[in-house]
Each structure stands twice: as C-alpha cells, then as structure tokens.
Amino acid sequence: MLGILPDGGRVGRGSVTVEGREVLGLPEKQRRRLRGRVVAYVPQEPMSNLDPTFTIGSQLVEPLRCVLGLSRREARARAVELLRQVEIKDPERVMGLYPHEISGGMAQRVLIAGALSCDPLLLVADEPTTALDVTVQAEVLDVLRRVQAQRGLGVLLVTHNLGVVADLCDRVAVMQDGRIVETGTTEQILTRPQHPDTRTLLAAVLDDAPARGEWTPPTVVSGAGTSTDRTEVTA
Amino acid sequence: MTTTTPLLAVHDLHVAYPGKGLRAPRTEVLHGVDLDVRPGETLGLVGESGSGKTTIGRAVLGLAPVTGGSITFDGVDITNASRRHRRELSRSMQVVFQDPYTSLNPSLLVGDTLAEPLVAHGRSAHDARAEVAGLLDRVGLPRDAARRLPREFSGGQRQRVAIARALAVRPRLIVCDEPVSALDLTTQAKVLELFLELQRDLGVAYLFVSHDLAVVRYLSHRVAVIHDGRIVETGPTRDVTEHPTDPYTQRLLLSAPVADPAAQRARRERLAAVRASSGSPSSEAAA
C-alpha cells in the first residue's frame, strides 16, 4: 500500500486505491505525495525507527518543514503540540532528547506523533505495541484510540494480538498464508468465528483458561533427580 | 506453606552490577528478594522489562553477581557455589532460554546437542545415544530429528529440543526464562501443554519467568509479581490473578487486553479507575 515493499518484492496483480484513486503503478513522485499527507505509517520497532544521531525534536521538525513547508519556528511549535497530543508530558524537554534517552513507550509515542504530523487520513500501524510492556501497551493503545476519535482517522492495524484487536478495532480481517480467510466486525470474529483458522487462533488464547490449582506435595516422583534420600512429606 | 521443605529457597537476595568505568557506583537491580519453589511445583515470576525477573533466574543459576542474601537448593547453600559444585548442580538444575534460535548450537546435530549433557555427566556415548531417542519421544519430536540440524526445525520444535536438552540429566528444577515468548500463539499453547505434561510425569519443578500473565496463570501453582527489583505480591495463582491486592499487580493484570470486545471495554474502564486511584502517571518518565 505504501509502495515500500522490500527489494525484489513486487505487486503481481490487483489494485489499491486511496481516496478512490489507483496508486499501483503511480510514479514515485506522486506516490511520495501520498505518504505522510494521506497515508502515514507507524512501525513495530520504535527504537530502530528513530535515528540515534538526531534529537527527537529535529526528527519531528524536519518532515514538517519539508512536506508542509513550515518555517523553523512554526514547525517547532507544531512538533511540541503533536507531542502533547500523544500525551507526552513536558514535550519541550523531550524535543531536546536523543532516542537513547527515552523509553520504548515514549519512542512509540514519538513515532505516532511523527506519523500524525502531516495530518494524514489513514494510519497504517504495523504491530505498534508488540515491542512494549503490557502496562505501556495499554497507554499507547489509549493514545491511538484518542487521536483516532479526535481526528476521525482511519486506522489499518496489523497485529497478532487478539486482545489488541478487541481493544481498538471495529472490523477485523483474519489472514492465513497470504489470504484473508474471514472478515467481519470485531464482535462477530471474536465471539462467533466461522472459519476453522480463526477458530484455531481463538482457541489458543489463554484469557479464559482456568488458573492452575494449588500445588500438592508429590507422593511419587518418578525419575526426577539423582540425589539420594528424598524427603517428601505428604500434607 | 506445607511441611515439605522447599527445593529452592531464595532469601533477601541482592544483585548489583558494577557501574561503567572506574569507581563508578554499582547498580543494584534486586533489592532483597524472597521466594521458594517446592518439589514438582511451578512458581511463576511475572514482571515487565527491567523488573529484575530474569536476573533472579540468572542468580539461581550462578550467572549474576549476588551481593547479598542467600540461595539454597535442596537444603544446601549455593549462593557462592564453586565451579565444581556448580557442575554438580547442573545435574539437578537446568535452564530453558527464551530464544530457541540462539540457544542451540547451529552446527551440532540435534542428537549431539542432546547427548552432550549426558556424556558430560559420565554416560558412555553409546548409552547417551540410546537415551536421546527416548528424549525425543518425550518432547514429541520424531526419532529422525537426532540426525538433523537445528535450522531444519521451526521455533516451536527448536524449543522442544531445548526442553529435551534440559531434561536429559533428569533435573529437579528447570529455570524457564520466557520459554514461549518467541513462539506464535498456537505453537505456544502446544509447548505449554508439554511443560505441564512433563511436570506431571517427571515431578520436575519450574521457576517460570515471564512477562505474560496469561501464560503464567495457566502454568503456575503460585505467582510472584516483581516490580523494580522487589517482589510486590506473591500467593496462589488464583488469588493473585483474580483478587490482586497490590496496586501494581492490579495495573499489570488490567493492562493485558482480552480478546472479547465487551469484556475489554469493561477492563479498560477498570484500568482507568485503578490508574486514577493509585495516582500513577499515565505516561512514564523519560529515562
């Protein structure tokens, strides 16, 4: 969709339209105009997608000046505002930090801010929270939900985590081996899956699995350990 | 606590890594941790990155600089065990690491990988080879796997090889450090089943380190939650995961989204309430 398939990969057939316009086969120059302004991308690995040699501020300001042609000062003010929107406290200070000085969760917020910087209509987010701890993941999902509501943004979220799907998505498409096997509302897919692959996937979710019961002292321990004289007492 | 003496007992454990540079202060990552694992029991150790959960496992295995406290295995103090003692301990204590792609020697046939610990513990090459076949059966791999290289296997199968290697010497405790985190959901479920089955059949105890509460809940008799180098809550799995008392545990539990839209909406609201009441910052501070 973004036209950034790895080298050698190419679209065999089919069509992708953005705002009703065919984008496959579009010259690179026109495609570039779509990126950022219409379609923006949030990658999976927040840290490796920031340049370690530039401050957060400069990485946000640069595209604003290039793409939108803002002055240095306007771009800076806007970058600070964007950081505030993704709920970074003290954005002025964060602007001056380098990527290694911020946490993974904050880096992902910065990337979301960057993706939003040119007011896109559609956000493509590829496993945006997979690299994050669960408590941080919950916060980043909150941010995504809020900016989506505020801006009326379309989001194409790519994830393996069905919990994230339940948290954020209206509709779901389930993929298996390069094919979409089932689509429907989140409610439908997660509570009444039809396709066997979807069912297998849901069956592997441990949410409803019972907690393991309490431990009982072993009476016979077959073949574990070689130490002699084991004193197990049955309670 | 029952009358059974714990297999592994960790008391007031402190671990500090030396700082960078000369005379730099040490960084303490564990600030007095207590836990124990009984024979045949699974203790789940849950925490987020940087909490020190992996360090506890490493300290137990003698791979982290212990600066205070004690670690007892089967009644014997192993806090500062000698190399020789460690070697002996490796017979009763084994490990399964997170990444099955890097924890297996890529140039060794699976059969040799499995025979190595057996030979190291005095088995003849012939006996070892015979036992390898049994080990492969045990973990649900085909017999001919012994003559293949790790790269011929999927992640889940490689993790089975790693488990078989740990089992080879019939240990009484296996430290499992995020053993299913690198696997996809369906493979993960199968490997967890294997862990349960092996414990039932062999009575091996697990110290199961993971960030994933659902996994820990499924596999553990008891759970210890670690946050910033301290155990904040510990108890039977059902109590900790259904009625957590510590605010951090509550936040951790509610943060993991569930695959049901209605239930997840309710969870989100409860999480917001917990965050508000514990006054935790909604965005983490910069490092």
UniProtKB/TrEMBL annotation, chain B:
<comment type="similarity">
    <text>Belongs to the ABC transporter superfamily.</text>
</comment>
<keyword id="KW-0547">Nucleotide-binding</keyword>
<dbReference type="InterPro" id="IPR003593">
    <property type="entry name" value="AAA+_ATPase"/>
</dbReference>
<dbReference type="InterPro" id="IPR050319">
    <property type="entry name" value="ABC_transp_ATP-bind"/>
</dbReference>
<dbReference type="GO" id="GO:0005524">
    <property type="term" value="F:ATP binding"/>
</dbReference>
<dbReference type="InterPro" id="IPR017871">
    <property type="entry name" value="ABC_transporter-like_CS"/>
</dbReference>
<protein>
    <submittedName>
        <fullName>ABC transporter ATP-binding protein</fullName>
    </submittedName>
</protein>
<dbReference type="InterPro" id="IPR027417">
    <property type="entry name" value="P-loop_NTPase"/>
</dbReference>
<dbReference type="InterPro" id="IPR003439">
    <property type="entry name" value="ABC_transporter-like_ATP-bd"/>
</dbReference>
<feature type="domain" description="ABC transporter">
    <location>
        <begin position="8"/>
        <end position="253"/>
    </location>
</feature>
<keyword id="KW-0813">Transport</keyword>
<dbReference type="Pfam" id="PF00005">
    <property type="entry name" value="ABC_tran"/>
</dbReference>
<keyword id="KW-0067">ATP-binding</keyword>
